[in-house]
Amino acid sequence: MKPCKANYENWVPKGMATGFAAGAAALAAGSAGLAVFGKGKAAKTAAAVSALGAVGCGAWAAWCVYARRQFSYDGARQLSKQIIEGTAEYIALPEGGVGLDVGCGSGALTIACAKRNPQGRMVGCDVWGPEYAAFSQALCEANAAAEGVENVTFREGNAVKLPFADESFDAVTSNYVYHNIMGRNKQQLLLETLRVLKKGGTFAIHDIMSRQRYGDMNEFMKELRLMGYEKVELIDTTDGKFMSRAEASAMFLTGSALLCGVK
Description:
Structural class: alpha/beta
Largest sheet: 7 strands, mixed
CATH class of the largest domain: Alpha Beta
Oligomer: single chain
CATH superfamily of the largest domain: Vaccinia Virus protein VP39
Number of domains: 2
Number of strands: 7
CATH architecture of the largest domain: 3-Layer(aba) Sandwich
Order of helices and strands: HHHEHEHEEHEHHEHE
Number of helices: 9
Strand content: 15-25%
Strand order of the largest sheet: 3-2-1-4-5-7-6
CATH topology of the largest domain: Rossmann fold
């Protein structure tokens, strides 16, 4: 019997919204208590600081609710689905070819690429860390089964050092992964991912590629072309392709772009 509907979760954890809401409530209560029962200048200052903290936590809680709704696969906007399917369009595997999805999370992009390429298969890898506890290999496999997709496999794999030999895959892809890897040069992470791409292979990597995170991407693309890559293109996905500039700004996604091309 076919499993229930796939559950791709949400990149904004539910606990984040509830945590900020609880923090706002606690700080507001503390501020009120200090204002009523506190004495002296120090108590008034503490009450004011707590009130500001409550406002800040409340604002973040509201943002989390908004972002979860925008990215929900079940919501009206379904931004995640639009990004996943839009990125998958760039992945074309040859007969018997194999593609890699780096940082596969809940398996959404891996499965979308596999659906579009029944003549090949996809491998999804991730570290499935505690910061995204809702994502797991088991969830990926359950989602593939729910979608009736069999040409996928999932395994542990860290984007910092992928457990694959050079030129192992006919295509590589990724979505909103590298900006989360703190303390690492993002261009070096991209090169590590592209290391496993075969000559003639295609890549499509979507992330928040702002200059402060990634450096000069135009120079990076020049370097890729000098290395022999063809048709390297950086596509702004906040100009209506995946989202509007207003949406990107509201969700702190300014700089979102799709790097794609052929090796």
